[in-house]
């Protein structure tokens, strides 16, 4: 077999089942190899940011990597922003980046670039294939690297001649090491701190927000009265009625600092101490209260469930957790859409086992709060702040979990970055309901402009934050890519449209107007 | 003034008049500074690939840099592909990339990344500001770097605190050095080679394709009978009736090699000897005929017009050039659209002084050929092969040349990468007529798949090259972004729609169906 076939066979043997792809000429051998590999699904996207964002969503839900297929340095460049988000989510992802044949590189043909250089800033592991026979080894190593707990971004540069040269063979998968465990001393320190403290909190992130870890955290809360708080932008929270609930740290630094200012003891599991998302003149970056005792129970790269369970046991905690969410959501107020009645509708209708891709920005904040008592679901946030994640993430979730409904809460401005995701939803008939929150504005920037000290912005500055000239018509955009859409302006209209979309299978778009 | 104000004032004093922008929180001070800077236009785009592609188009037409405004490493990442194209076009571009405040970086907040690392693969010059007072110096240096003949990509990383700290001042512009001249020995060698050769050619690229250089090349042709050939993907060719015409080297390597195989002498001005765009198994990368005498008269970074004029004089060439294109275009055949009648309509209707942004791929090849005798125009190609250039480039051309009609010949697959450009066209009321060539396919890849040796592609491989499921509806996409559109299926329909669009001012989209 040629190198491409050996690579794809190896990845398949490792357990890679999906390749999100936007290939070009230099990846044609890889396309052919995927073509011949039963058991590896190929999902085409019309832009690389969709490819990498989908791989992120897939990784968050499947807890194993999908492959991406990208076209040289520029194609990888187009995927960097969502690789940044995936890296911040600690998602497992394997990028296969085609490059010129090794002997062609020195001719400096127009598409020549430093593909590895493009990869490095957003990858945890970069491996350039050395030969057709080395290529499958690179793939096996990338698979292990991608599974570095809980997940890493592994990028393999695939020169075209290594892909097409015959004489390669698949190599055996390498076993990934188990999840690192938190040191026992950390458990003991956390237990002692919780006993000594008067106002205590567990600050949870990453894998600590999965159901089992939350159950253990709830037991700790039952034993100690500790408050359960989660990071602002979590990769995946398992929540809803019957699960242990957590409160989310607010986004703006001063509100976040206020939120945790009274705790004398904070135990961290799956998260580092929170910092301000951006810096602002005269405002602190570090948010934890001065003098508080901060204990790292489990870093984001250590198994938090085992650590939390050990902590609960060390505290003699009861078997039943505290803070289990009870069923129920706020009533829906009729009338023109606002953040509250939007949230009430979404919370009420969210179906069992839904997956929420949340890039709702300023308008969607209440959705998270109101859905604490919704049916059980997974909530996936914008982890790295690089906007344009939400729709691609929804694609990946739907591919990973074909039997679950995906709901994308998508702000208009950020949705435009990777709007091409709608086409892949239509092509693959993915069960995604997208709710576009249309306020014709980069609303967050209107706030931020003032927060960084610009007191009297002029018309040119304000125009840079304004999307109303012309207004986007998302129903038309969706139609252009084959997704049925409808525009709503009231909570009643949203209720009906969302009910209908959730009852059906396949992609739908609802444009919720806030103007 | 603060650092941002000092930077923007400095760039303005250097002559920068336009900033293509997609800002975020860390760039709010720069937005405010641009707001206060009369004489600097701010053009918002909804995606960074539009920003950088527009700066490329502006640079090609204005021969001076626009600024871009980008949001940290991920925002720059989204702009890399078109920076790659701009770099290959040798366009002058200044990127201003906001970054976290220096003191905030070590907290590793979610958007933290190695912005300079992201910049380097696609920049000729990367400068990280050292302080608020250093920031304007960085800007002045970037302006000089961007003007490194004929143009370079200069990137300045702007930490937020350097932007907002008070106590900075604008600095004086630095004079850019003049264009380097080709050595006299090269002129003498070229003259001797042309006299000695029997079948000779001038191979022209870059600035050698401007009117003055072409005139000189035409004089050389008049004196020697040398054929005039241009690179396949040129940044900007000044052409049409009354100008010296050049024939374009074919795209596929074997056709290109065939095209030049009989020349015993090839003189290069503004271009390096051509190489195959991609490598293919068993096919050569180097295209020049074995044993031919290859003379580099002027490299792409030396003034080709002066060198060609000196060469013409050294040969005692007549004042009048050979090979001047005569007016006239092929007749338009009626009926369903095909590459020939598309080209005939475009060639016939192209208005005086039009600017053509050509990302027409497989369908548009004839457009270039048929328009040799059209009214005078500029023709801008996809220089770096990173698709998604065409629509952003048209934006930049229209901003640089508000009194000229811009025609974007845009293939469907590549158009989708940066489809957001349509919104900026609508917002700025840019005089761009976009013709989408819709064949519902990555048609080039259907050819390339076989060329790299995949003899019998299966359905999964073919589906990766197919855009028909679902078909894109570009009229709906354009409507979604505020651009009036119409779909045509015949040459008569195209003729009418294009006539109407060219007679009007402002953005229009024509979806030309080839299926």
From TrEMBL, chains A, B:
Tree of life domain: Bacteria
CDD domains referenced in this protein's UniProt entry, alphabetically: TPP_BFDC (cd02002), TPP_PYR_POX_like (cd07035)
InterPro entries, alphabetized: DHS-like_NAD/FAD-binding_dom, THDP-binding, Thiamin_PyroP_enz_TPP-bd_dom, TPP_enz, TPP_enzyme_TPP-bd
UniProt xrefs under SUPFAM superfamilies: DHS-like NAD/FAD-binding domain, Thiamin diphosphate-binding fold (THDP-binding)
Domain Thiamine pyrophosphate enzyme TPP-binding, first and last residues per copy: 381-511
Pfam families: TPP_enzyme_C, TPP_enzyme_N
GO molecular function (one): thiamine pyrophosphate binding
GO biological process: small molecule metabolic process
Domain Thiamine pyrophosphate enzyme N-terminal TPP-binding: 1-106
Cited Gene3D superfamilies: 3.40.50.970, TPP-binding domain (3.40.50.1220)
Keywords (A to Z) from UniProt: Thiamine pyrophosphate
Keyword Transcription regulation attached: no
Cited PANTHER family: ACETOLACTATE SYNTHASE LARGE SUBUNIT ILVX-RELATED, THIAMINE PYROPHOSPHATE ENZYMES
Family: Belongs to the TPP enzyme family.
Protein name from the UniProt record: Acetolactate synthase large subunit
Species of the source: Glacieibacterium arshaanense
Lineage: Bacteria, Pseudomonadati, Pseudomonadota, Alphaproteobacteria, Sphingomonadales
């Amino acid at each position: 077999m040629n190198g491409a076939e050996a690579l794809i066979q190896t990845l398949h043997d490792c357990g890679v089942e999906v390749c999100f792809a936007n290939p070009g000429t230099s990846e044609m051998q890889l396309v052919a190899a995927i073509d011949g590999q039963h058991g590896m699904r190929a999902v085409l996207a019309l832009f690389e940011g969709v490819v990498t964002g989908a791989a992120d969503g897939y990784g968050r839900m499947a807890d194993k990597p999908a492959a991406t297929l990208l076209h040289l340095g520029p194609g990888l460049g187009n995927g960097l922003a969502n690789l940044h988000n995936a890296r911040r989510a600690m998602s497992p992802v394997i990028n296969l980046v085609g490059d010129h044949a090794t002997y062609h590189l020195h001719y400096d043909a127009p598409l020549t670039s430093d593909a590895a250089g493009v990869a490095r800033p957003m990858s945890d592991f970069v491996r350039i294939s050395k030969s057709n026979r080395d290529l499958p080894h690179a793939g096996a190593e990338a698979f292990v690297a991608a599974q570095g707990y809980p997940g890493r971004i592994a990028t393999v540069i695939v020169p075209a001649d290594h892909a097409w040269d015959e004489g390669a063979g698949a190599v055996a998968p390498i076993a990934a090491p188990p999840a690192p465990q938190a040191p026992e001393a950390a458990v003991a320190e956390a237990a002692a701190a919780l006993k000594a403290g008067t106002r205590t909190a567990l600050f949870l992130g990453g894998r600590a927000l999965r159901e089992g870890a939350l159950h253990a955290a709830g037991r700790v809360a039952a034993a100690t009265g500790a408050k359960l708080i989660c990071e602002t932008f979590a990769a995946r929270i398992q929540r809803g009625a019957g699960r242990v609930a957590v409160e989310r740290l607010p986004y703006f630094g001063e509100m976040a600092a206020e939120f945790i200012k009274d705790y004398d003891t904070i135990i961290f599991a799956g998260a580092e101490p929170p910092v301000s998302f951006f810096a602002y003149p005269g405002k602190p970056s570090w948010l934890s209260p001065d003098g508080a005792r901060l204990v790292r129970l489990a870093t984001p790269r250590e198994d938090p469930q085992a650590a939390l369970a050990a902590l609960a046991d060390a505290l003699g905690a009861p078997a039943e957790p505290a803070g289990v969410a009870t069923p129920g959501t706020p009533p829906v107020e009729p009338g023109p859409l606002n953040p509250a009645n939007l949230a009430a509708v979404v919370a009420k209708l969210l179906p069992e086992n839904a997956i929420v891709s949340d890039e709702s920005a300023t308008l969607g904040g209440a959705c998270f709060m109101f859905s604490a008592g919704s049916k059980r679901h997974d909530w996936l946030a914008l982890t790295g702040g690089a906007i344009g994640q939400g729709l691609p993430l929804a694609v990946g979730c739907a591919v990973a979990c074909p039997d679950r409904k995906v709901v994308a809460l998508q702000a208009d401005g950020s949705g435009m970055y990777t709007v091409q995701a709608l086409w892949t939803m239509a092509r693959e008939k993915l069960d995604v309901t997208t709710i576009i929150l249309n306020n014709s504005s980069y609303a967050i920037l209107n706030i931020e402009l003032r927060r960084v000290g610009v007191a009297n912005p002029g018309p040119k500055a304000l125009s840079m934050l304004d999307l109303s000239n012309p207004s986007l018509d998302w129903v038309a955009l969706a139609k252009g890519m084959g997704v049925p859409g409808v525009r709503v302006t009231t909570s009643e209209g949203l209720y009906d449209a969302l009910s209908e979309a959730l009852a059906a299978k396949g992609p739908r778009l609802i444009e919720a107007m806030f103007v």
